[in-house]
Amino acid sequence: MKKVKIGIVVEYNPFHNGHIYQIQQIKKMFPSSKIIVAMSGKYSQRGEVTCASFAKRKRYALKNGVDKVLKLPTQVSTQAAHIFASESVKILNKQKIDYLVFGSESDDVERLIKIAQIIKKNREQYNQLIKQFLKKGANSFPKATNLALQELSGEDISMPNDILGLEYVKTIIDNDYPIQPVSIKRTIDFHSEETYLDFASATKIRQMLKNNQDYTKYTPMRFNYFDKLRNNQKIYRRFQKVIRKYSTEELEKFKMISEGIQNLFKKHIEIDKYDDFVQECTSRRYTSSRIKRTILMVALKIKK
């Protein structure tokens, strides 16, 4: 009997019990299956350094039921949700996956399919609405897309995994990929700072790591001295050098530098700590994730 191929887009930052639960659920749904994951490399979708190397996260994934791990290129893994999701699905489609599985707060794939179809049929209007909302009230891109969606379809998709889920489904629908999307209800909220039984979000576990708290109940991963050396401050130092060295015009050649964001960076570049700089630059217009991704693009000197 031919094994069905299951694709998952992941960060495993870190790989934790929630991921093990997801893999177990997949194996229950598809007993004869091959699980292929597309995973972020050194940097996460938020533009931060991952808490462990790609090789280490891959090892834990393979040990816990994943059959194949693909490495997402940095220019995919560090993008906003719509680019991150669409490019990741395209990579998995080349693996000829039958199903794409993702975690979801609402766990309503049919609703996501319906919304994706509405967007496809009204693409021009949808894009126009996004532009309008971006101009109106200096909304961030995620906020503008959600407002556009509400106006177009009456639907509100604002939870992190549902946002990604919709982007996955949109990519499948837009490209007519022969992939069936499948959602699995999340065991705990994406950025939750609470724990539940043996489950904690990746955000919570990273926080525990940072604060030297015991995280071992929530993840099979174990972290050492070298893992703890992985931090965003080094990236920020590189970023500072570039911002100081180049003029505002020269900075425009780097990816994600637009709308004069480099002026904001130059204004605050003497702030010493990465977290403080991000906080100072975050606004209604620029989300912290947008700031972090741009810092990374500039630090790595990735051009448009």
Q: What secondary-structure arrangement, pairings included, does this model have?
A:
Layout: E1 4-10, H1 17-29, E2 33-39, H2 54-63, E3 68-71, H3 74-77, H4 81-93, E4 99-104, H5 109-121, H6 123-135, H7 141-153, H8 160-175, E5 180-185, E6 195-196, E7 199-200, H9 202-210, H10 225-228, H11 232-245, H12 248-251, H13 261-268, H14 274-281, H15 288-299
Parallel strand pairs: 1-2, 1-4, 2-3, 4-5
Antiparallel strand pairs: 6-7
Helix pairs in contact: 4-8, 5-8, 6-7, 11-15
Would you mind describing this structure in some detail?
GO terms for molecular function: ATP binding; ligase activity, forming carbon-nitrogen bonds; tRNA binding. It is found in: Cytoplasm. Its EC number is 6.3.4.-. Pfam families: HIGH_NTase1. The chain is α/β, with parallel strands linked by helices. The chain folds into 3 domains: about 5-105 and about 160-205, HUPs (Rossmann fold); about 120-155, no CATH class; about 230-300. It contains 15 helices and 7 strands. It has helices at about 15-30, 55-65, 75, 80-95, 110-120, 125-135, 140-155, 160-175, 200-210, 225-230, 230-245, 250, 260-270, 275-280, 290-300; strands at about 5-10, 35-40, 70, 100-105, 180-185, 195, 200. Strands 3-2-1-4-5 form a 5-stranded parallel beta sheet, sandwiched between helices. The chain has a two-stranded antiparallel ribbon with strand order 6-7. Helix 5 packs across helix 8 (about 160-175). The model has no long low-confidence stretch (mean pLDDT about 90).
